[in-house]
Design brief:
Elements: H1 2-17, E1 26-30, H2 54-64, E2 70-74, H3 84-95, E3 99-104, H4 109-122, E4 127-133, H5 139-145, H6 150-166, E5 191-193, E6 196-205, E7 208-217, H7 225-228, E8 236-244, H8 252-260, E9 266-271, H9 289-304, H10 311-333, E10 346-349, E11 355-356, H11 375-379, H12 382-392, H13 401-409, H14 412-424
Parallel strand pairs: 1-2, 1-10, 2-3, 3-4, 4-8, 8-9
Antiparallel strand pairs: 5-6, 6-7, 10-11
């Protein structure tokens, strides 16, 4: 944490004085524009590109070094890439990030579960955050996403992911295998009884508990799902993300209540807005300001009047309240309320290697393939320098959540309010 705070001070110096020139700490890597959802609030699937390969990404990662603290692997739908798991594992091996964030529509349940199991087991010292996109309840979600059965699939994915981190919530002082249902006749050693053939592995390393079991019936050759559900990871966090748009604003209170009752580890919302990345410029998807204000005021009220015992949860929710307040102010006054550090602390890499300061403008400031996969060279070119000045001069504004949370970390007034509410006096 102290290392992060010291880097934040350096970023402020870089923003105001242009020195020292250091690499960003937050990256978004869009791995593909392909998507199996056809959302009414996003047309990114219409984009076409020649995606970079695993070998190309490794070259990029080596140039990034240990600069990434937070990485988001996005899309499109990232799990559509066959080499998604290998890309994430390679990034972890080379760059050693502390947080790996993965948004998904949750449709490819089996692929997602298998991939996240592999990633959690491999990236033991990183916090793995999986955010599932849910914009409505039941048929409403399917209609917004234009995919029949999407809601049922994403809820199934959510339930399975929650089970993967549920076992660490209780009785963590006991070995994980001691909490397995003994009626399944599972033993720590390999055994074979009648028609049942089973094998089991148990690992305990640091704070990360891993239990792997495979039970096969000789006759049916099916994997016993109960055994698979006993795989759990302490470094996994599962959340839900809702885009507030004109399609769901009228019943947002019901949507948010229903989704929060599922008890995700974080519930995140963001307003639908015009973004060049999503090809939504000129598309009528943004709700009226007063309606959006009512929606986030409702969320703020719920957070303030909830007893939150864990300190880290208080910090997270305090930042959430600050974001809602910031987003309302940006939309009302149509300007930056606090300085934006896009291009300084954060940047985005498109599937074809184009590098952007942010995804709202999606303006290519250089291409990794044309610069020997060296991001530092692009960040220091004249185009990027002009873009940083453009942002610093407040010639653009937006309530983009990813950038806003980064910006709040560098705003001392925001940090003071978060500290006060988290450590001195909570709202209620």
């Amino acid at each position: 944490m102290l290392q992060v705070l010291s880097r934040l001070l350096l970023y402020k110096a870089y923003y105001y004085f242009g020195f020292p020139r250091i690499m960003p700490m937050s990256y978004t890597i869009s791995l593909t524009w392909d998507c199996n959802s056809k959302c009414s609030t996003c047309f990114v699937c219409k984009r076409k590109s020649t995606d970079m390969s695993l070998d190309e990404y490794k070259k990029v990662f080596y140039h990034l070094g240990k600069s990434p603290y937070w990485i988001t692997f996005s899309g499109g739908e990232p799990f559509l890439r066959k080499d998604f798991t290998e890309i994430v594992k390679s990034f972890y091996d080379i760059c050693k990030p502390r947080i790996i964030n993965i948004p998904t529509n949750g449709i490819l349940t089996n692929t997602i579960i298998k991939s996240i199991q592999d990633i959690c087991q491999h990236c033991k010292k990183a916090q793995i955050i999986v955010n599932l996109s849910i914009d409505g309840i039941g048929d409403q979600h399917d209609q917004i996403r234009n995919v029949p059965g999407n809601y049922q699939k994403v809820i199934l994915t959510f339930d399975k992911l929650k089970k993967m981190c549920k076992a660490t919530n209780n009785n963590t002082d006991k070995p994980l295998y001691s909490r397995i249902d003994r009626s399944k006749n599972i033993d720590r050693k390999k055994q074979q009884t009648g028609n049942i053939k089973s094998s089991l592995k148990y690992k305990s390393k640091g704070n990360n508990f891993v239990y792997q079991a495979s039970i096969k019936d000789k006759n049916s050759n099916k994997i016993n799902e109960d055994a698979a559900n006993n795989i759990s990871f302490k470094n996994l966090s599962v959340g839900i993300h809702t885009v507030i748009s004109k399609y769901n604003i009228d019943n947002f209170a019901m949507i948010s209540n229903t989704l929060m009752e599922l008890k995700p580890e974080q519930y995140i919302t963001e307003i639908a807005e015009e973004r060049h990345e999503l090809m939504t410029v000129g598309v009528d998807i943004t709700p009226e300001l007063l309606n959006y204000k009512a929606a986030v005021d409702y969320l703020t009220h719920r957070i303030k009047h909830t007893d939150i015992e864990k300190r880290m949860n208080r910090i997270t929710q305090a930042f959430r309240i600050e974001y809602y307040k910031l987003a309302k102010a940006i939309l009302r006054f149509k300007t930056q309320i606090i300085p934006c550090y896009s291009g300084v602390v954060s940047c985005q890499i498109a599937p074809d290697g184009d590098v952007w300061a942010c995804c709202i403008k999606a303006k290519s400031l250089g291409n990794l393939r044309k610069n020997k996969y060296n991001l530092k060279k692009i960040l220091r070119n004249i185009k990027f320098k002009k873009e940083r000045k453009y942002i610093k001069d407040k010639q653009c504004y937006c309530p983009l959540a990813n950038a806003s949370y980064t910006n709040m970390l560098l705003d001392f007034k925001t940090l003071f309010r978060v500290f006060y509410r988290s450590f001195v006096k909570w709202f209620n």
